[in-house]
Design brief:
With 56 residues, the protein is an all-alpha fold. 89% of the residues lie in helices and 0% in strands. Helix 1 packs antiparallel against helix 2. The chain is elongated, with a radius of gyration of 13 Å.
Amino acid sequence: MDFLIGIILIVFGAPLVGVAGRVIENSGREGIGKTISVGGYLAVLVLAIWLIIRSF
């Protein structure tokens, strides 16, 4: 089950966090938007990779 959740996070979660950060960045909060975009994207990827590795 962890493998499936990890794949779903990579396919859907990480891009959605990036898009949310971009929207915040374009609304005038450039620093916060960039932080959420990059940091959130990396956090979701690390979590997804951890879940995938843990499933083996």
